[in-house]
Amino acid sequence: QVQLVESGGGLVQAGDSLSVSCTVSGRTFSRYAMAWFRQPPGKGREFVSFIDWSVPATYLYYEDSVKGRFTISRDNAKNTLYLQMNRLKPEDTAVYYCAGREGALPSTSSMSSPAWYHNWGQGTQVTVSP
């Protein structure tokens, strides 16, 4: 059974950088399309970024508010997905989740839908103070 485990969250100040990771076990990570979502306090889960399984990636997408600040990447040899977050803002405060689906690629509309993904991590808290 596949397991996704996030790590690397924490408390930082506005303008700082932070990297979160997601380690996948139990299945062939190199066949998984992966994404990051986040859930701010009191809000629903929202799309952050997507990466397909190829290295280098063929498809990379970002939500508009994180473009130019966040970078998604993956290391298939380490079964790990990354999200490098720079110039963090208080509005980036959220629980960050990794999500994946094996052997398929989403349409541009379904990519940002949590329902498209079959597997989820438990989340890691990122808090950005003003």
Strand segment count: 11
Number of helices: 0
- Report the helical percentage: under 10%
Contiguous runs where pLDDT drops below 50 for at least 5 residues: none
- Which sheet architecture does the biggest sheet show? 7 strands, mixed
Percentage beta strand: over 45%
Give the H and E element order.
Answer: EEEEEEEEEEE
Radius of gyration: 14 Å
Principal-axes shape call: globular
Gap from first CA to last CA? 40 Å
Mean of pLDDT: 96
Structural class: mainly beta
Protein architecture, described:
The structure is a single chain. With 130 residues, the chain is mainly beta. 0% of the residues lie in helices and 48% in strands. The strands form two sheets. Strands 2, 4, 5, 6, 9, 10 and 11 form a seven-stranded mixed beta sheet that branches. The protein is globular and about 40 Å long.
Short descriptors:
4-stranded antiparallel beta sheet, mainly beta, about 50% strand, about 0% helix, 7-stranded mixed beta sheet, about 130 residues
